[in-house]
């Protein structure tokens, strides 16, 4: 799916966080949102994922202006098209790793064929093989981050919004996550990543520098 932001601005608590940002995120190309700490990468990612409203400008998804979506239409978009790996990971500590991977897809009643096999694969792909029965609360920060990624991969959404996916990872896991996201993108998904990580940025086919309102390809 094609996501286009056209001149979007956001003010939070009286301060301008995003000022006239425009970018295009295409299917099959991983887009990096880059900028200094506090420049608004997370805010922009949240706007593109319809988690935060914009004050000016518009966001088009496959040509539809989603800035005017009702709450119900936004929920449909999240349910049918989007997966998120955000900074708080949204993990239920009192539940098992396996439950956390499958819960989003289960809650929405999405039919996932061969889901046991798929659960196994999505855990293997993030290095959490054989960890499905553990309590999620017992995982480290980096493992929770990979669990959140397993959940997004399991859902197999058209668009993946990922906030700092390599922030708490060592070099080996960082490389694994970058390859995983590149592979997911190559399978015809739209992947948008907020990141500071030079290796992650190097793996992206488009880079949007916050504040410059242009993307390099
Ligand atoms: N809910 C909020 N209330 C007040 N200020 C906010 C809020 N959310 C974001 N901001 C401010 O907006 C600016 C951009 O924040 P954002 O988290 O988008 O930046 P970032 O580029 O992702 O930063 P980092 O790289 O440090 O994660 C910051 O100055 C931040 O303090």
From TrEMBL:
Q: Where is the ABC transporter domain?
A: 3-217
What molecular functions are annotated in GO for this chain? ATP binding; ATP hydrolysis activity; transmembrane transporter activity
Q: Does the keyword Ion transport apply?
A: no
Specify the protein name: ATP-binding cassette domain-containing protein
* Upper taxonomic lineage: Bacteria, Bacillati, Bacillota, Bacilli, Bacillales
Instruction: Enumerate the UniProt keywords alphabetically.
Output: ATP-binding, Nucleotide-binding
Which SUPFAM superfamilies does the entry link to?
Answer: P-loop containing nucleoside triphosphate hydrolases
Q: Which GO terms describe its cellular component?
A: plasma membrane
- Matching Pfam families, A to Z? ABC_tran
InterPro entries, alphabetized: AAA+_ATPase (IPR003593), ABC_transporter-like_ATP-bd (IPR003439), ABC_transporter-like_CS (IPR017871), ABC_transpr_LolD-like (IPR015854), P-loop_NTPase (IPR027417)
SMART domains, A to Z? AAA (SM00382)
Q: Which residues form a coiled coil?
A: none
Q: Which organism is it from?
A: Lederbergia citrea
